[in-house]
Amino acid sequence: MEHTVQLTGVLEPRGAWTAKGCTIARTLDVISTRSAFLILREAFYGTTRFDDFAERAKLSEPVTAARLKELVEHGLLVREDYREAGQRTRQRYRLTDKGADLFPALVALMQWGDRWLDERGGPVELRHRDCGEPVALELRCAAGHSVTPDELDLGVREVGARAPRA
Fold first, then answer.
1. Residues 6+ apart with CB under 8 A from 155
2. For position 84, what pLDDT does the model report?
């Protein structure tokens, strides 16, 4: 099986253009490090406090501080003040809608690792709370068909057209 998309229109032949303005490259400019992915993982698992991010992601305090600052600057996390009774005001971090939209990307990485890096399937799994069944990420077209890379065409987006929202 061929595991590539088919280039169409002005994108064919491949040598005739470059991936200028590529959103994959631009996304990696925002989440450019392993530590950023691990902090996002922890945020999805409910971590909110600086010390907990550092401990759970096994990062040094300077690295944790740098990554949290970057993720806040890019709008993936928001920093909020909170105060527990009898304590000083502290800050916690929570995912924004922009940050939460990255969840499928992290699930895709987890699913790939479960398949290719651990013959037992990895130490944890996602289950649908309502029915208890395991969750799997897959590509679907707007009509609901499951698709593989060899069934996809890559073309130039029409001017003014927005990317589909899941």
1. 7, 8, 9, 11
2. 86
Under 8 Å between Cβ of 44 and 68: no
Sign of CA dihedral 77, 106, 124, 131: positive
Q: In a 3-state reduction of DSSP, which class is residue 7?
A: strand
What is the model's pLDDT at position 67?
97
Any idea what DSSP says for residue 50? H
CB 40 within 8 A of CB 106: yes
Output the six-digit token pair for 73. 């600057």
What pTM was estimated for this model as a whole? 0.85
Q: How confident is the model over 23-72, as pLDDT tens digits? A: 999 999 999 999 999 999 999 999 999 999 999 999 999 999 999 999 99
* Start and end residues for every CATH 1.10.10.10 domain found in the chain: 32-96
Between CA 134 and CA 147 the distance in angstroms is 20
Class of domain 32-96: mainly alpha
Q: What is the pLDDT of residues 92-112, one digit of tens each?
A: 999 999 999 999 999 999 999
